[in-house]
Amino acid sequence: MLFSVLDIIGTVAFAVSGTLTAIEKRMDIFGITIIAIATALGGGTLRDVLIGNTPVTWLKDLQNFYFVIGSVIITVIFRKWLNELRVSLMLFDTIGIGIFTLIGIQKGIMIDLHPLVCILLGTVTACFGGVIRDILCNQVPVVFRKEVYATACIVGGASFYLFQFFSFSQDAVFICTILTIIGIRLLSVYFQWSLPQIKGE
Amino acid sequence: MLFSVLDIIGTVAFAVSGTLTAIEKRMDIFGITIIAIATALGGGTLRDVLIGNTPVTWLKDLQNFYFVIGSVIITVIFRKWLNELRVSLMLFDTIGIGIFTLIGIQKGIMIDLHPLVCILLGTVTACFGGVIRDILCNQVPVVFRKEVYATACIVGGASFYLFQFFSFSQDAVFICTILTIIGIRLLSVYFQWSLPQIKGE
Amino acid sequence: MLFSVLDIIGTVAFAVSGTLTAIEKRMDIFGITIIAIATALGGGTLRDVLIGNTPVTWLKDLQNFYFVIGSVIITVIFRKWLNELRVSLMLFDTIGIGIFTLIGIQKGIMIDLHPLVCILLGTVTACFGGVIRDILCNQVPVVFRKEVYATACIVGGASFYLFQFFSFSQDAVFICTILTIIGIRLLSVYFQWSLPQIKGE
């Protein structure tokens, strides 16, 4: 139950962020919708394709698709107001990557994949919606160049197995994992942490 | 039978349009061939991957692949002449999206997907060859920014279910759907319709 | 045995080339790792997705993943030194495309695909890691514009069937195919061969 609610919050947040990106790129309403779908559902789609979970989740259960369409409509109508809400959006987005990482890990566990692979699948679920959005908008994916974003997913994913090792209840493991990811991300934004850039010659 | 003929026409038209795009980008003959394959077969490939219909159709039946290669050769030889045929190409392309939308819908129906999902699969089949072509050529997909293109597929896909509701014969439903898509597309080009662009702040 | 060793050499070479490309693009350490993974494992991943061999190979057996991570670490540490090794890298890379083409062909043969499709799968395995790397780095894939690269894979793939026709031992067929691809590629670099570019109007 909590799971589904958080899933919807994450989906909506990613859909809103995709919509705002596409508006900036002066796309028409169809382009905006596709970018929003790619941002919100792209990570899970890539994960499903990689593990052979097809038809991919959102084609089998349209709930998330409807939430994306609803988010696009509301975002387009209230776009001027939402641009002032970038901080709240960042919060939603952060909750989103927390829950999406967890969902990705669970999908991997369900088909008995190696823990490291499950963490990778969690990171793919959380981050590759944004990567696909950026590719469709013809820019170098922002996640490759800025901020401790994917790193929060990877560390949070590792913490999932740590929490499980200490045999917390399943719900507690879920919530601690999400809070770890959210915590790392918020601290990194607040203190402007960034990963080292490697200088060439 | 009619179905196969139209499928081939659509494939050839998309292959020709991909070839002309790649020539403009000064690619070598290998790059041109890949772009033509991506344009003509990419939409159906993405659809097959999303629904788990693998190996994807054109790997199991090479007919369409051969038509793409043939189209590339003929287009490269007659490229100066073909550039003056952009209007005929647009017509072929329009027939192509009509039939590709229909094929995509049918593939979805065959595995009992929700009508809305089938319309999406039809649109993916018709439009994403062009999207993949544009990504490989490093430009923002044209379908996101111009013309009533995907919209014709979506409205045409919806009309498919409308025609079926009025229990036409299957063949009549097919032909009416294709004609609806072709009609919307041609009218939109003639009257220069376009979807509203959403202005940012 | 020989097969696995060559597979590892190819994977490492592609990982190193991806790492150097990402450093030039001033990505952070996460971006560099993703680009290296995409370059080394992307071609095989696309092949597996197209033929429905999921979960894709490197999610089931992490060995190649570990070699990629190790290559990234070593390349980042020794990056100044490696840039002077571009010739050795080109050699590794050439061995890589030879063996990756062969692996792709074998995967196709194992599920009874048409020889032409197997050659295509070999070429996809060898070349599309680089294509995905270039798309993620927001540049037109280099393989579409330069050098006899994919062509070596295609001709080498055809030679595989030729060698088999003359009923060499399986090992001899493998080695001759790899040597053919390496030979064509090295000759093309040495003599600066390139495919004809097609001029537009």
Please tell me about this protein's structure.
Three copies of one chain form a homotrimer. Chain A is mainly alpha-helical and 201 residues long. The first copy, chain A, has a domain at 2-141. Chain A is built from nine helices and no strands. Chain A has helices at 2-24, 29-51, 57-60, 63-77, 79-82, 86-110, 115-136, 150-165, 170-190. In chain A, helix 1 crosses helix 2 (29-51) and helix 1 (2-24) crosses helix 6. Chain A is globular and about 50 Å long. Chains in contact: A-B, A-C, B-C.
Structure characteristics:
homotrimer, 201 residues, mainly alpha, 9 helices, globular
Radius of gyration of chain A: 17 Å
Shape of chain A: globular
Total helical segments of chain A: 9
End-to-end separation of chain A in angstroms reads: 53 Å
Helical percent range of chain A? over 70%
Oligomer: homotrimer
Strand content of chain A: under 5%
Give the structural class of chain A: mainly alpha
- The number of strands of chain A is 0
* Average predicted confidence as pLDDT of chain A: 86
What order do the SSEs of chain A take from the amino end to the carboxyl end, as H and E?
A: HHHHHHHHH
| Chains forming the largest contact | A-B, 31 and 32 residues
| Spans where pLDDT lies below 50 across 5 or more residues of chain A | none
Largest sheet of chain A: none
